[in-house]
Amino acid sequence: MKVLVTGGAGFIGSSFVRYVLRMRKEIDVVNFDLLTYAGNLRNVEEVAANPQYQFVRGDIADETQVENVFEQHRIEAIVNFAAETHVDRSIEDSRPFLRTNVEGTRCLLEQARKHKISKYVQISTDEVYGSLGSTGSFRENSPLDPSSPYSASKAAADLLVLAYYKTHRLPGLVTRCSNNYGPYQFPEKLIPVLITNAMEDRSLPIYGDGLNVREWIFADEHSRAVLLALERGTPGEIYNIGSGHEKTNLEVVGEILRLTNKPESLIQFVKDRPGHDRRYSIDCSKIRREWGWSPEMDFASGLATTIEWYRTNQAWVREIKDASYLSYYDRMYTRRDQTLAVLDS
C-alpha cells in the first residue's frame, strides 16, 4: 500500500514515518511537506535512503500540487498530519491556520474522493473539545467547544472529513490525541522549551498559576495508534488516543528540573494567555476495546528518554533556533530571557 503522509517532516508526522517504516515492510510512504518553520528534513534523515520512502515538497492547500502528487505516486491512502498547530501563533494571526487546516484538508479530501483512496486518517487534537473541570474525560461523542483559532480550525477540518464520509462515502476517520512529547519536537512547545532552557540555565516561564492540566503521550505511542487507525479504523468514526498521564504544568517542570538537576529558582510565572483551557483528559476506552491498544511508556521513562535525546542532539536544537524563530518570541515578550517562553503544546 502506498500511503501519503502529509506533514511528515514535522514532529508527530516524522515520528509516524519512522515508526511505520520500522514496522511495516508492505507500506510505502510518500512524505508530502511544505517545510515551513516547524518542518525539518533532519527529522527523517534515518529513513531517507529507505526504498519504501519518498519525499515530495508541497503545500496541501495548493490543489494543483496535491493533484500532482496523487497522480505521480498513485496514492492509495492518506494520513494527514499537516497543520498549523501553535495556539499562540493562531491568536496572533489566524489566517494561516484556516488556510492549512481547513482549506488544506478540503484539497486532500477532494483528491482522495477523485482517486478513490482506501482510507483517509485525519489527525486531530483533544483541544477541539475545549476545557474540562477537575473531573471527567472527553469521549468521542463529547460536544466540540474550541477555545482558540487553532482548535476551531481543527474542529472545522474534522467536520469536513466526517461530512465527506456522509456525503460521498469517502472512507475517512478522525483521531484525536492528547499532548505529544518526545524527540524532534520543535522547541516552541512546553516540554522541549523547558528542557532546552533548563540545560542552558535560562528562566522557565510558566503561564498563569501553572496548574493547567494536560494529558501527555509519548509520540511513538501515538504513532502506534495511528497505524492501527490506518489498518483497522472504521470509516466515519472518531477515535480518541490518550495515555492517562495527566500532569499540571508545575508537575512537568518539576520533573524536568529533577531530571536535569536544576534549581526551582529557574521557574518564572508569566501572564496567562487568552482562552487558556484549564484541563484536558481523554477517554480512550474505544481503541482499547476495539484494537487492543494501550500505552506502554510511562511518563517518567518517556521524559527521561526525551531529555537524553535533547542533551545529545544540541546541534539540532541550535540549528532551528534561527533569527526568525527568536524574533517571533521577541514580539510576544519584552525580556530577552523570556523569548523561548513555555507554551502549551
Query: What Rg, in angstroms, do the CA atoms define?
Result: 19 Å
> CATH H-level name of the largest domain... which superfamily?
NAD(P)-binding Rossmann-like Domain
Most strands sheet: 7 strands, parallel
| Helix-residue proportion | 40-55%
CATH third-level topology of the largest domain: Rossmann fold
Order of neighbouring strands in the sheet with most strands: 3-2-1-4-5-6-10
CATH class of the largest domain: Alpha Beta
Which CATH-level-2 architecture of the largest domain? 3-Layer(aba) Sandwich
**How many E strands?**
12
Low-confidence stretches: 323-345
Any idea how many domains?
2
Shape: globular
- Number of helices, counting only DSSP H or I runs of 4 residues or more: 12
The proportion of residues in beta strands is: 15-25%
Overall mean pLDDT stands at 91
CA-CA gap between termini? 32 Å
SS-based class: alpha/beta
Order of helices and strands: EHEEHEHHEHEEHEEHEEHEHHHH
